[in-house]
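Why does this matter for the project? Reviewers at the last site visit asked to see concrete outputs rather than summary tables. In response, this paragraph embeds two records directly. Each consists of the residue sequence and, immediately after it, the corresponding structure tokens. Nothing has been edited or filtered.
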Amino acid sequence: MQSGSRAASASHAPINTQGQTVAPFFLHEDPWNLLRLYHVYRLALAGAFLLAMVGQSKFVQLGVQNKELFGWITATYLLIAIISNLSSYFQWPDLMIQGVGYSIIDIIVLFIILYTSGGVSVGIGILLVVPVLIPYICAPGQVSIAIAALTGICLISLEVWLGLSEGQSNTTSLTHSGILTAFIMLASWLGDRWIRKADEMAKLANRRGIDLANLSQLNQSILDRLESGIVVVETSGAIRHMNAAAWHLLGNPGNWRSKPLAVFAPELDKHYQQWINEVSPRTASYDLKHQQATELRVRFTQLGTQSRRNTLINLEDTSEQREKVQGVKLASLGQLTASIAHEIRNPLGAISHAAQLMSESQNLDKADTRLLQIIQANAKRMNLTIESVLNLSRKKEPKRERLPLKGWLHSFLRDFILQHNLKEKQVTLFIEPADLMIEFDPAHLHQIMWNLCRNAFKYAHDNPQKLQLDIQGGTPAHSRDVLLNIIDNGRGIPEDLRQRLFEPFFTTSTQGTGLGLFMARELCLSNGSALEYISLPTGGSCFRIAFSRSTH
């Protein structure tokens, strides 16, 4: 039963018998420590009284009126100090009983010592101030003030009684006792004012601390729920905070805590060092693309002062914006193709049909026959272009499936090699790790790969039998994406043509429509991936597809 009481006292603020808090708020953290410190003072005071009794110092005349009573009360006080010290560690009885009770005991002991020493003239009356102030640890101010007033009355009464017992009035001693009483009352009043003020400030600080903690928790919750990535970096380069979105955008590279940005995200750190070392404004934006489908808009913002400067890094995935633009583009293209089908395709069909009828005439010479062939060829080419544009505008939402990349490519390349009469050794496939999975529409992926491999077969090399296709796939470090490279050993693409490579209707061939690569890139974008051209220093071309890795 006692142990339960002690546990409750240790974990909660002290309470009185009515269940009300009696200790000042700012002392609720652990008021027992103050009481234990007071017990150490009592032990030291009891030891000093004992030394004074044994030493018989001529400067301190203690117990001169009654040495026997002084010795008895000194020994008793030392024993009480030892017992009270132990009781404070066991926290029994409760805080209020110990604080008020031991304070009253100390006052009584000091009055007895004053009596045995001849009154306040001995010079230890000032010690009464300490036990008068101790009840503030556990009791309301009224109790402490009442104890102070009673102590002052008893002090003056003691001097009057001592004077009467000696048969003479000591005005000096009465004056000293009155001054001491006034000082005790003043100390008690000031202690009460200070306790109340400190209590109010502590309650205010606690409320503000709670509000600050709640605000911090709210901010943390908001940051964690943001779709944009948030990273806070200290001046030393260590990551202070990172929300889940930023961790995901950077490719889930592991635990970020206690790691510098240079180790956790090297590519992001390069832009950060560039910004922090330059004379730049408080806020600056960069575009970051680290060999993956995800293109990030990075914004750096200075936090704090120059002496303690942290940096807020905001990461935004621009793929969503890109998809919105793509949707608007396709909607406009749909309207255009509807007009094309109505205004061009029907007259073109009539022209093609008329040319075919004229070609059946027996009166045509060779020149006319050649002209009709030109008309029919160009009409066929224009119709092919219109069909390609119509197919592009009719593009449906992708039906993504979870595909094993290596197995799917094996099946595709087998069909491609057979249809184009290639040798198996002309095409190599290397995927690492072998169990890579992607999320992609199989029909769209087939169309993309067919366009890329078909272009390599037609344009990369003068002799298709000397063509070498090297298809490589894998996951780079610090990336959440899967990269697939389609590399050929051809002549490559001139630098002046690379900027227009993915433009619609751009082609260097008289037989093509210029929509193959454009269509391939659009299909990649609709599947949350990216297609880009990479120049090789050794010659040849490399088309890179960056797939978002499957998370299922």
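We now turn to the second protein, recorded in exactly the same manner.
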Amino acid sequence: MSKRHGGKILADQLAINGVTRVFSVPGESFLAALDGLYDHDIQNIVCRQEGGAAMMAEAHGKLTGQPGILFVTRGPGATNAASGLHVAMQDSTPMVVFVGQVALADRDRGAFQEVDYRRFFSPLVKWVAEVETTARLPEYISRAFHIAQAGRPGPVVLALPEDILSAMADVPDLAPAKPAMAAVDPARAQALLTRLLAHARPLIVAGGPCWSAQAQADLEALATATGLPVAVTFRRQDYIDNAHPNFIGDLGVGMNPKLAQRLRDADALLILGARMGETATNGYRLLDPAAPAKTILHIHPDPDEIGSVYQPSDSLVATAPAFLAALQGAKGQFTNPDWTHAARADYTAWQVPQDTPGAVKMEQVVRLISDRYAGRALFTNGAGNYAAFVHRYTRYHGYRSQVAPTSGSMGYGLPAAIAAKLAHPDRPVICYAGDGCLQMTLQELSTARQFGVDITVIIANNGRYGTIRMHQENHYPGRVSGTELFNPDYVQLAAAYGGTGHLVTAIDDLNPALDAADQGGLHLIELRLDPSMLSTTRSL
């Protein structure tokens, strides 16, 4: 062995763990790490603001199943990244964040940009630590990769004092992290399935982390073989082909009222990987933690999640893919097919577009784009009322065709689209964003252009924070306060970033804009929406 500076040790350990891409906003606090990356074939996506960079890293983790890697500098850089870490924690996405820190000798003196990261990040991540010895870098990095992927995945933070990174050490590398996965006894899986099938009104609810294309195929096979209905949780609609006759919709914001009632009426739930939080249960009103009044069979990779909100009737510590794999060839048939057929009919009826005001209607836009790119595109979005149209009217087919924050974070769609195109350069990537949502991470258009990322951004422009306005009208009708927006000229803005802008003022304008986007490049397509449209079901 020979001595290496801490940044080189860090970069070598990333390569050993199979890292091929990192996201960053550079800072002088981790210059040695940047130097270490110089010697590796690890792409560094240099972003414009740490919040966008963190969301890109989080989306990368969603898309690949491997920890998204983020580098940010001390103080403002670290605190700017907090929004993306919150997404990763709520969405159960593996992520490792390296934060520059002041020198060890200067700590606890209120040094320039000093932050106590253990105190700051502790509520937002699975684990946060600060490395105090250069020789222990491999140990800390290995632990970070293990924790980020173990049980319920999530983000971890390692603070790196600049003198620890620049110091020399002679230390061996550690092998790549390989988190242990619980095996599933097929007989045990069969027993849980048999118990579910004994009920008259059961539901399978799929969601949570650790899914795969194979898990999607296994879930579809299980639904076909048994006749059981399958719902998914918020922004997990790509866990099953929406064309499958047993798919009945998503338990999310703005869910089908008939699906909500069906969740309430169900006498048994097989929960595959999901936590059944506030969004899936409409504020815990559809499923009362104190008295769920139904059989709950909970499959989750983290034992700490089982029983944390809902007391299960039975449970299994395992990933949903492992459980589904164990059920291959399982026996049993649901004896009340009318329950499934009625639920599917409710979903099909919910898919029929409901007319909203204006020359450009979101229900028409989303349905046109969904049909045009069926089975090909990867769709991203942030948060806002426009997203309710995306969820309701997009038909997802393949696994990982939907990338969106279950945390409901605005600004997510654009950074996620950049990460998605980098991960899948052969697929069309369509980003949906509201005018308010887009402007929170708009500067990352520069990142897209710098790295040659060809994406199409559909901007739902209604001149307001639509979700807040909707709630405002619910609680304080007619008293508009703090929800109006001034917007830039998005066509000119696209040109300023080296892309192409398109203004859609009638639905007939959309296909020509998409034709142009399909030729490649960065395209912003602005939809001029009627501001009286509040949601998929309500207008002023």
